[in-house]
Amino acid sequence: MNNRVLSLVLSRLLIALITLVIVSFAVFFATTLLPGDTATILLGQAATPEAVEGLRKAMHLDEPALFRFLRWIVGLLQGDLGTSYANEMPVADLIGGRFANTLKLAGVTALFSVPIALTLGITAAMLRGSLYDRAVTVLTIGVISVPEFMIATSAVLIFAVYLKWLPALSFANEVHSLSDMLRIYAMPVITLTFVIAAQMIRMTRAAVIETLNTPYVEMALLKGASRPRMVFRHALPNALGPIVNAVALSLSYLLGGVIIVETIFNYPGIAKLMVDAVSTRDLPLIQSCAMIFCLGYLLLITTADIIAILSNPRLR
Amino acid sequence: MTMTTTSTSTTSVRKSGNRLGYRFNVVGILGLTVILSWALVAVFAPLIIPYPVGEIVDLDYFGPMSHDFWLGSDYLGRDMLSRILMGARYTVGISLAAVTIACFSGVVLGMIAAVAGGWLDTILSRFLDALNSIPSKLFGLVVVAAVGSSIPVLILTLSVIYIPGAYRFARALAVNINAMDFITVARIRGESTWYLIRSEILPNIVGPVLADLGIRFVFIVLLLSGLSFLGLGVQPPYADWGALVRENIGGLPFGAPAVMFPSLAIASLTISVNLLIDNLPQKIRDRA
């Protein structure tokens, strides 16, 4: 690793940090656009003006927006996420366990989707133009062009209604055995895997095909290397960077998918918490959840970029 | 170099004898047909629906497909076919309005950034990149939480979400064109920035930009449906296709047709747009 790579990586991290500041700014001000006064909403129509004024003071609502923003950011950095409007519990307590649940769901999905997607993507690229390749391409385009909830409802129709293997839209909180565990995770994971894997297959296939079109692979073909040798020894090591980049980018689609999947299957994760918070207009909760999501998204995108930089041999 | 390729492609098309100069294949035409028929449905929906949208016409709820109710009935016993046909107005209309605003603003900003360069380019790119790193569904959720959901808010939110993508795409194309000799010549002639954008750059990127508009339209339809499915998009009594799925999700355990058909309507629209884009004549797609 030389100075050039180091400075590129550092500048990428700096950009991520600046982006995070802009994003937190956007999230804070979007949520304070709320028409009506928060204190009045909290106390209801019958509250006396004195009570509203007292609450406004206590919540620092009488200060300029910029001060409140800085106070909020400092609080976030110290781990103080504020108090929920809806049930007056600290937001950190509400999020804690839910966040772990979402991470578990995302982890299990990644565990399944990455190997499946890489196998399908690479083999489709190797057999480019064949019937198999066309079938994979049509399938991925089909999955990408339909909304996530359609994949979820189709999965329920197939596995719960017609085959009767799994329970429909129910979620049990108590897990007693491995089979319970499987039944809970099966449907959300199947849905998410479809969504993520389709993206990943497309990107992986494109990355491998691009490498297969390079002059050095043509050279390997001309000198008489066998097809597997050509792909595994010559093409794949060079496509590794773009592939890992594609994996990280596709994993960022988990965020969108998880919002739909947790809602439809009633999974007690952070996305469900956020959708519920939106319907009760629980601003501190929405802000914290939004920041967690943006942070995760930014983390994945930045990782993808840094991997792309590190894997580029021209910069080494 | 572009000029020579353009001229050879026009001559070759002329030789083929096609008057319009565009050759479509069957799949592309199929996609276009489906899109046009949904557009017609959206315009003429009130004239062709068999039953009034809000009226309870079936005694049974989640009724099966039958001669009277071609696509079954919904959770209140309303005719599903009528509701889907009317839903096309909201899904197609909102998405079309949003994609027009997004692509227009994105492309104009992109061309300005490419031609002007310098600090304007840097600031615009940095800002829109930051906007781009907010996941789209999350952005929608936060805005809906803040200002509530109405159709103008939805159109604006959806277009703001997709401006950065359109900007990035148009800027990348325009930067390539900007390096061409005829731009330098125009600059030396003393033409204004506005002239450069309108008469030199725009005609050279319009094909790919139109293809990009189609792809972005698909994204917007999917996001709008997703938001409506979460109950944050089009609000009752109106319903777009995503909201129809949400209303009838209770029929899922019985496999009611009311759950699947709105999803199928979305899928038919988005897949057709993708097919059309993939099979666009080379001349439109790869103009730049």
Automatic annotation (TrEMBL), chain A:
Pfam families: BPD_transp_1, BPD_transp_1_N. The keyword Transport applies. The chain crosses the membrane at residues 12-34, 105-127, 139-162, 182-201, 239-265, 285-310. It is a multi-pass membrane protein. The keyword Cell membrane applies. GO terms for biological process: transmembrane transport. InterPro entries: BPD_transp_1_N, MetI-like, MetI-like_sf. It is found in: Cell membrane. Its main location: membrane. Residues 99-304 form the ABC transmembrane type-1 domain. One of its GO terms (cellular component) is plasma membrane. Keywords: Cell membrane, Membrane, Transmembrane, Transmembrane helix, Transport. PANTHER family: DIPEPTIDE TRANSPORT SYSTEM PERMEASE PROTEIN DPPB-RELATED. Belongs to the binding-protein-dependent transport system permease family. This is ABC transporter permease. It comes from Sinorhizobium glycinis. The lineage of its organism: Bacteria, Pseudomonadati, Pseudomonadota, Alphaproteobacteria, Hyphomicrobiales.
